[in-house]
Amino acid sequence: MMEVEICNVKFKNPVIAASGTFGFGREYNEIFDVSKLGGIVSKGLTLNKREGNRGIRIFETRSGVMNSVGLQNPGIDEFIKYELPFMLKLDTVAIANLGGESIDEYIKGAQMLDNTRVQFIELNISCPNVKHGGMAFGIKSKVAYEVVSKVRGVVKKPLIVKLSPNAENIADMAEKCCEAGADAISLVNTFKAMAIDIKKRKPVFENVTAGLSGPAIKPIALRMVYEVASAVDVPVIGMGGIANYKDAIEFIMAGASAVQVGTANFIKPDICISLIDGIRNFMETEGIKDLEEIRGIIRR
Fold first, then answer.
1. What positions carry a catalytic annotation?
2. d(Cα 224, Cα 155) in Å, to the nearest integer?
């Protein structure tokens, strides 16, 4: 059985399209039937519209992709009016990813999303590409506790907290977020990284650093998912360089209830369908009737 349940919400399968790589599902739905996915996560949303960062935003490396988009998005009000109705028609679990530059912004945004039909709010305390807020909330456990507890206090919907791999102690960070009221944990966001244009003798990105994702980070992300799944009792959603069904199975065996796929969507837009088929075939070949049989199996 590929169906998974997180916070009493049923997903058709454990494969979810990650925030920032899937828009709101419109473009991908023209390529394949998005309703076949377990869920989709919206573009990172902020209270007000953001134009994003200047200069180069995407840069390909030998084993991954660096980005400095800067949470470009239409703002929560426009999302609710124009994008969310489309997401809800896709017949898959809709998750709203929420970013912010201050705790007040997180609180107001969460309140607006809580009054919609979106099934989850994913609190993004881990974006490395905004100058204020973003990852600043995702490094120190004490600061993360404060923002998560304040948001928890104003929302009724299930709250997923998305962690940064740049946290001082990833397991401690997850535990503090759970103490503050997180219903689930997702990890990891991109790694803070850097590239230099040697001809121009300057950094590629105007912000100097950017977020690295893709195959290069998978072994590290897998280790972090294992550590967090061992430390908390809430569902864990793993991500970081997942590019085929074997990667997804590894994350599930490390303890993940579901996985999110990001960078691979840019390489093969229907990669999530390949993962779903691959997981199903693996289960049939190995005689696995329910993913619970292998979830966290390396920790038993």
1. 127
2. 28
Q: What is the DSSP string of 86-119?
A: HHHHTSSEEEEEE--SSHHHHHHHHHHHHTSS-S
d(C-alpha 181, C-alpha 198), whole Å: 46
Number of alpha carbons in the 13 Å side-chain half-sphere of residue 111: 8
Q: Is 69 helix (H, G, I), strand (E, B) or coil?
A: coil
What's the token pair of residue 192? Answer: 């803070």
Going through the chain in order, the beta strands assigned E by DSSP cover 4-6, 9-11, 15-17, 39-41, 58-61, 64-67, 93-98, 120-124, 159-162, 184-187, 191-194, 196-197, 202-203, 209-213, 236-239, 258-261
Gap between the Cα atoms of 120 and 240, Å rounded = 20
Cα radius of gyration rounded to whole Å, the chain: 18
Banded model confidence at residue 78, pLDDT cuts 50, 70, 90 = very high
Residue 78: other Cβ atoms inside 10 A: 14
- Between CA 17 and CA 27 the distance in angstroms is 13
pLDDT tens by residue, 130-166: 555 455 687 889 989 999 999 999 999 999 999 999 9
Structure tokens at 1: 């059985």
* CA 119 – CA 184 distance, rounded (Å): 13
**193-198, long-range: CB < 8 A, 24+ apart:** 193/66, 195/59, 195/61, 195/66
Helix axes 218-231, 170-179, angle to 10 degrees: 40
- Listing DSSP states for 165-185 in one string gives TTSSSHHHHHHHHHHTT-SEE
Q: Residue 136 carries which side chain, given as an amino acid letter?
A: A
pLDDT of 15-52, one tens digit each? Answer: 999 999 999 999 999 999 999 999 999 999 999 999 99
Q: How far apart are the first and last CA of the chain?
A: 21
